[in-house]
Amino acid sequence: MPKNDPVAYVQDFYADQFAWCYGCGRFNKDGHHFRTRWDGDNTLTEYTPRPEHIAIPGFVYGGLLASLIDCHSTGSAALALYHRDGHQLGDDAPVPRCMTASLKVDYLKPTPLGPVLTVRGNIAEIGTRKVVVKSGVYVGDELCVKGEVVAVVARIGQEHQR
């Protein structure tokens, strides 16, 4: 993938041992496969819920929406840290893998099941190991869910890696 490709997804660059997440891991065959990329100075994830993601007829299950914000935000944090350190996706440097330290979700209105969900995020704060990401889940131009995630760089010992 070209270094400056605007549709390069951070999850495609996670080290293999960090690519198993149910929400965004490329190796989890049963997972959602959420994918996050830059969109100007913000981040973007698009996902179309499947019929089994139903809460009540016509609406998306809230747990999926929380998962979408969670994985979008950890991907956004990884992008922000990588960019801060002078890298672009496709460089030889390993992409940091972030984990959620805190997840806050506000459900503003029922989210319809069927249309593409667009998560737009912005980096509210970036530190040495911690990144705060604020995101919104949209259907078209309508904000349905907003979230805030505190993500931290994962420091996982060999005993926990695949």
UniProtKB/TrEMBL annotation:
Question: Per UniProt, what is one GO molecular function of this protein?
Answer: hydrolase activity
Known catalytic reactions: (9Z)-octadecenoyl-CoA + H2O = (9Z)-octadecenoate + CoA + H(+); dodecanoyl-CoA + H2O = dodecanoate + CoA + H(+); octanoyl-CoA + H2O = octanoate + CoA + H(+); (5Z,8Z,11Z,14Z)-eicosatetraenoyl-CoA + H2O = (5Z,8Z,11Z,14Z)-eicosatetraenoate + CoA + H(+)
* Family as reported in the entry's similarity comment: Belongs to the THEM4/THEM5 thioesterase family.
Q: Where in the cell is it found?
A: Cell projection, Ruffle membrane; Cytoplasm; Membrane
Q: Name one GO biological process term.
A: fatty acid metabolic process
- One of the record's GO cellular component terms: membrane
Tagged with keyword Magnesium: no
What EC number(s) would the UniProt record show? Answer: 3.1.2.2
Protein topology in the membrane: Peripheral membrane protein
Q: Which domain of life is it from?
A: Bacteria
Q: What keywords were assigned to this record? A: Apoptosis, Cell membrane, Cell projection, Cytoplasm, Fatty acid metabolism, Hydrolase, Lipid metabolism, Membrane, Transit peptide
Q: What class of enzyme is it?
A: hydrolase
| Record-given protein name | Acyl-coenzyme A thioesterase THEM4
- Occurrences of domain Thioesterase (ranges): 58-142
Coiled-coil zones: none
Q: Does the keyword Hydrolase apply?
A: yes
Q: PANTHER family annotated for this entry?
A: ACYL-COENZYME A THIOESTERASE THEM4
